[in-house]
Description:
Chain A is α/β, with parallel strands linked by helices. Chain A has 15 helices and eight strands. Chain A has helices at residues 9-13, 17-30, 45-49, 53-69, 80-95, 97-107, 120-127, 132-135, 157-160, 170-177, 196-199, 201-217, 228-236, 238-245, 255-262, and strands at residues 2-6, 32-36, 74-76, 116-118, 144-148, 181-182, 222-225, 252-254.
Amino acid sequence: MTKLGYYPGCSLEGTASDYGISVRRMARALGWELQEIEDWNCCGATAAHQTNHLLALSLPARDLALAEEQGITELLVPCAACFSRLVHANKAMQQDPETAREINDIIEMNYRGTVSVLNLIEALQKYAMPDIAGKVQRNLSGLKVACYYGCLLLRPPKYTEFDDAEQPSSMEDIVRALGAEPLDWPFKTECCGAGLSMSNTGAVVDLTHKILENARHHGARVIAVACPMCHSNLDMRQLDVSRRYGKYNIPILFLSQLVGLALGVSEKELGLKKHFVKATSIIR
Amino acid sequence: MARIGVFVCHCGENIARTVDCARVAETAAKFPGVAHAVDYTYMCSDPGQNLIKEAIREKRLTGVVVAACSPRMHEPTFRRAAAEAGLNPFLCEMANIREHVSWVHEDREVATAKAIDHVRIMVEKVRHNEPLYPIRVPITKKALVIGGGIAGIQAALDIANGGQEVILVEKEPSIGGHMAQLSETFPTLDCSQCILTPRMVEVASHPNITLYTYSEIEEVEGFIGNFEVKIRKKARSVDLNKCTGCGLCMEKCPMKKIPSEFECGLGARTAIYRPFPQAVPAKPVIDREHCLMFTRGKCGTCAKVCPTGAINYEDQDEIVTEKVGAIVVATGYRVMDADLYGEYGYGKYPDVITGMQFERLLSASGPTTGEVRRPSDGKIPKKVVFVQCVGSRDNARGVPYCSKICCMYTAKHAMLYKHKVHDGQAYVFYMDIRAGGKNYDEFVRRAIEEDDAMYYRGRVSKIYEENGKLIVKGVDTLSGLTIQVNADMVVLATAVLSQEDAEPLAQKLSISYDEYDFLTEAHPKLRPVETNTAGIFLAGACQAPKDIPDTVAQAGGAASKVLGLFSSDELEREPVIARVNEETCVACWRCYNACPYGAIEKKEIKDRQGRAVRWVAHVNESVCAGCGLCNAICPSNSVELDGFDDEQLYAEIGALSNE
Lengths: 284, 659
Ligand SMILES: Cc1cc2nc3c(=O)[nH]c(=O)nc-3n(C[C@H](O)[C@H](O)[C@H](O)COP(=O)(O)OP(=O)(O)OC[C@H]3O[C@@H](n4cnc5c(N)ncnc54)[C@H](O)[C@@H]3O)c2cc1C
Ligand code: SF4
Ligand code: SF4
C-alpha cells in the first residue's frame, strides 16, 4: 500500500472541490492511503509572494514542518500553485541553512528539510506507472486528449526539477498508459491568464481562446489539466470565449478525473457533474 | 656581516592608502642586519630600480628585500636590477605587502604592523640566503601543436616557415576544424574553403611538419624545452602509405546512411569515409562503430575493392613518443546543443536548425550544393528567422558570456540568404549587436540596409509548427510590440562552448582553465598567448570564443613565442631545485615514488675499488621543478630545497616569534 502525505490547499476544498474529490477517489482506486496534514494552512499562493518574500516562504514552511512532525516523508500537492509555493520553500530551506534558520525562527518550528513534495503527475509516475495500464477498466481508446500543463507546474525548473519545462511529456505518458490518445500540440505550456481571471477577464478570455483554439485545431476531444486555476479559466471562461469567438465545446478534465474514469470510477463520484462545460458523456 | 637593503614601495596609492610605508621603512632600518631602508612611490619604475642599484653599489649591500606587490608580478624585475648592480639575483627577495596586506585589509594600523612583519620575515630569510646560479638545459627544437583547426594550422606553418620542426596532432581524420565547414566568412565574404584548403595542403607537404591525424595526446611529461609526449595514433584501419585516396571503398561501402558529422547531420556518409572531399589527408578511415565488419563481423567489401590492399581490419592503436621543446594548444571549440531550449523546438521540427547547419546549406560543397533548401521537404524557404544569443548571455540555462561571433555570422547568414533567395525575407532577433572590429559594424549595417534584413531587438519566446509554417513568437522591445513571424525556417545562433575534453587535456598539460573549461592565458592583457606553464602556449578558440582574424593573430603570436624560445640553444632555469644529502640518505625511495616529475634517480655509491656499496637518491637537475614534495616526505631529512632550506624557513618563523 502506497502511503502519501496530502496537502489539499484551499482550492481543492473550495472552488475546485471536484479536483479534491477526484484526487481522493482516484487515490482509493489506486490503493493509495492519503494522510492529510493536520492543521494545515494556506500556502500563500500568488498573493503572498507579491507582498513579502519571507511571508511567501513562511506560510508553506509551516505546512512542511507540520508534515515532518506528523511523520510524512512524501507529500502529494495536487494544486499547481500550492505545489509551486511548497517546492519553493522546501528548496530554499534545504539549500540554504541561513534561510532555514530565519524561516524556522519565524514559524517557531524546526523544519529539517526531510519532506519531498510531489505534484499529481510525479505521484502517478512514481506510484502508478507503468502498471496502471493493467488496472484500466474503461476503454478510452480513441479519446484524443490534449495535456495542458500551464505555467506553474513546471516553472521555474530549478525548483520544480521535473520534466522539460518547455517540451513536457510526462502527462502524455500517463494518458497513453490509460489507453487514451495524447496529442502532440504546441500550446501545452502557454499561459491561461491565471490570477487575472477576476481582475482582467478580457485578457483571460483572449489567452484561453488561443489555447482552446490550438487544442481544437489539433483534434482534441478533451483537455486534461493538473491545476485548479487552469481548470477554472478553461472551463468556466469557455462560455465567454464562445460568446466572443464562436462556439467551443471542449470538456476540461482534471488528470485525476481521467485516471479515475479509466479505473472504472463513476462520473458522479469523480465530480464530473460540477463542470461548466458538460464533461459527462465523453465515455461511451 | 649582513648588509641588507629594504625598499618599500607605495605602488602609487595601492599600498600607501592602507600601509604607512615610511614607518615600515623606518622600522625595518632597525632590524638586525639591515644597512639601508627607504620607501618610494613606484619601485618598479626606472628611478625606483635605480634606487636599488645605487644602494647596492654605494652601501655594498649583501642582500635586498623589496616590499611591494606579488613576486609573481615583479620578482624577475627586481632580481634583474640586483644582478645588474653586481649582486647575485637570488639574494633579492620580495615581501608581498600589496596582495597580502593593503588589498585585503582596511585598518591602517593593523595593515602597517602586518607589513612590518612581512618585511621582518624576508630580512631573516635573506640573511640566510646563499647565492644560486642558474641551471642551463638544452632545448629540443621541435614544437608540438595540438589541434589542426585554423589556429593549429597557422601556428604550425609559422613555426615551420621559421625553420623549426613541428608535430601537428589532430584528433579527427582530417585537419581543418570548424573553418572547413564554413561557407563564406565575414567580414569580407571570401569562401572559407578557398582560403583554408591551400593551407591545409601546405601543412601536409611542408618538410618541417609531421602530421598525425586521427590521433590524440596520451601523456605529457617534462618541462619547457624538454617535453616528452606520448601520442595515441588511433587505429585508422586504412594504411596511409598504401592508400591512394581513389575512393572506391567509399563508393562501395553498403553503410550509406550514417549522419555525417561534417554536414551536422544534414548529409550522410559511409562507414569508411573521409569527412569532406578536400580532407587532408585525403584518405579514408573506418568508423568502427558503424562498420559491418566490426558490428556484425562480416562484409569486407572495402578490402575486396581496394586496388592497393590498404584496408586493414586488424589495425591497432599505436603509441608514439616524441620529444618537443614547446607546445601550442589549439583545440578550438564546440557549439552548444540547441535542444536545451525546448521552446524553440530544435530536434522536434526539422526546419529549426543551428547556425553551423545553415553554413552547410550555404556551402557550395554542402548537402544542397549551396542552394538554401530546408531540411524537411527541400523547398526554398521564403521567410527565415534568425535567433541570436541562444544559450549565450543566459545565466539561467546557458552560459553567462557572449559568444562573440554570432552577431557577425548571423548578419552574414542574413546577407548570404538574400544573395541566394532574392525574394526571401530574413528576420533577426537580437539582444544587442556586438560588432566591434575592423569593418564589422559596417558589415551588419549592410545586411540591414542593402540586404533588407529585418532586425528586431528582443527575444523569441516560442516556436511551434502550424499548417506547415513555423510560428515564431517574439517581442520587439524598441517598439514594445509582440512580433509573430510565420516562417519557413529558423536558424539558432547557439553558444560557443569549450571542447568536451578540454579539462582532461588541460590536466595532462598542467595548464589552467576557467570555470567554463576555456584554457587560461598567463595574463589577460600582457601575456595573452602564454599559459602559466612555461613552454606551453595557446592559440584560437580553445582560450575563448574567437573569430578567424583573432584566431590567426593569436596563432601567429604563439608561433613567434615558440620561435623566440628556439632562438637559443640553451635555456636558463631557476636554480630552485632539490638536493639530496648522500651521507644520510637511506634509500627508502619515498621521494622516488612521490616526485610528480620523475626527477629522482637511483644512484649507486661505489667504494674506492669501484665496488657498489649502497644506493642513494639523486636529483636530475634538468627535470626537478623545485616543488619540494621530496623535501617534505623524506623521513631521514636528507633532502633540502635550494633557496628554501630548513635553516631559511626556521629563520622566517623565528623572525615572527622573536619579535
Ligand atoms: C556558425 C558559425 C559561423 C562562423 N562564421 C565565421 C566567419 O564567417 N568568420 C570568422 O572569422 N569566424 C567564423 N566563425 C568562427 C570560426 O569557426 C572560429 O573562429 C575558428 O574556427 C576557430 O578556429 P580554431 O582552430 O581555434 O578552432 P576549431 O576550428 O574548433 O579547430 C580546433 C581543431 O582542434 C581539434 N581538436 C580538438 N580537441 C583536440 C584534442 N584533444 N586533440 C587533438 N585535436 C583536437 C579539432 O578536431 C579541430 O580540428 C564561425 C563559427 C560558427 C559556429
Ligand atoms: S579503395 Fe583503397 S586506395 Fe582507394 S581510397 Fe579506399 S583505401 Fe584508399
Ligand atoms: S567493411 Fe565496413 S567500411 Fe568496409 S565496406 Fe563494409 S561496412 Fe563499409
